[in-house]
Specification:
129 residues; 5-stranded parallel sheet
Length: 129
């Protein structure tokens, strides 16, 4: 399974000829994409009209969804503390995505290079599409 970060959903929706769209289309067709709440919220905040919001949320909520639990929050805090001790500060939203990926043994598909700094996290790299 693959958690797709907001950074790949944006070109998916805005650039129909992008590599991200082609890669996500393949993952969606294979039922390999997982949605998480922070990505849903980040995408919805960009909606300009109620209709756009409805269409977007209906499409995204058709995907598999992983919920955050108290143990996810604890893992997020532990990840952050570990990285801070090494001098690395990452956005809480990305730490939460990483914690969910680690918790559910998923890969993360993101254009943000800082995910590479998270120990034990496996990243998704699309093959040529």
């Amino acid at each position: 399974m693959v958690i797709a970060d907001t950074s790949v959903w944006i070109p998916f929706f805005n650039r129909p000829d992008s590599q991200e769209k082609a890669a996500l289309d393949l993952l969606i067709d294979a039922d390999e994409v997982v949605l998480v709440g922070v990505v849903l919220a980040e995408l919805l905040q960009g909606c300009r009209t109620p209709t756009e919001r409805t269409v977007l949320s209906d499409a995204l909520l058709a995907l598999r969804y992983y919920e955050v639990t108290s143990s996810t929050w604890m893992r997020t805090g532990d990840l952050s503390a570990h990285l801070l001790r090494k001098g690395v500060t990452l956005p809480l939203s990305d730490l939460l995505i990483a914690a969910l990926a680690l918790e559910h043994d998923c890969r993360v598909y993101s254009l943000d290079a800082h995910f590479k700094k998270i120990p034990g996290l496996h990243l998704y790299t699309p093959t040529s599409v």
